[in-house]
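User: Okay, second chain of the day. Same drill as before: sequence in, structure tokens out.
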Amino acid sequence: MDQHGSERATLEMLNSRLRTMLTSRELPLVMAIDGRSGVGKSTLSAAIARDLMPTPVTVIEGDTFFMGGSAETWSSRTIAENADRVIDWRRQRDELKQLLRDGVATWLEFDWDAESWDSDIVPLKTQPLSANAASVVVLEGVYSCRPELQDLIDLKVLLTVPEEVRLAQLLEREGDTDQNGWVSRWSAAEDYYFAHIMPEESFDLVLSLDRTGHNPADKIFAEDDVDQ
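Assistant: Same drill. Structure tokens below.
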């Protein structure tokens, strides 16, 4: 496991590692970016896609595979069961295999805008999402490096920030609310996942961004902050 904390060099270092890997293995190269809610995984993924150009990059958002479920259902399960069922990793696995085999994958994403998003009837959007195989495929989201997917993943990355920074970013994104207890439920499942299923030493690369008092993802991965 490699660990890096230099802010300015983080993205450049990661992209340099990806370029090296691209020359030494069969494509596509699949990288998973894991980390707790609010650490900046989506921002990092977008920055990778931008800065690796002209190398094509496909980003798959893990949240599109949310499994749903009502508060009552979540409360009836153990934390370990919830950690297994936040994201439909079985469907993720099927789509990754299809992408690697056929060059394209399509799926119906979870509808976060549906009024019934927190019910046991899982709302899915009617318009399918499609992903094409590119030189680099990034699966980003909490639980993206779980053991059941690892035979399909070439590089397992964990992104971390100080807890106070993560909570501030999560508050900015979600608003001043616990969404009827959902943030707490998700947090408990993440606690279990990173403690018992994917502790830090399980990753190939840990990006620990250690500045406080601002949004480190916006700062570090902003276009003007990285040498092109």
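Confidence is low (pLDDT under 50) at residues 212-228.

User: Thanks, on to the next one.
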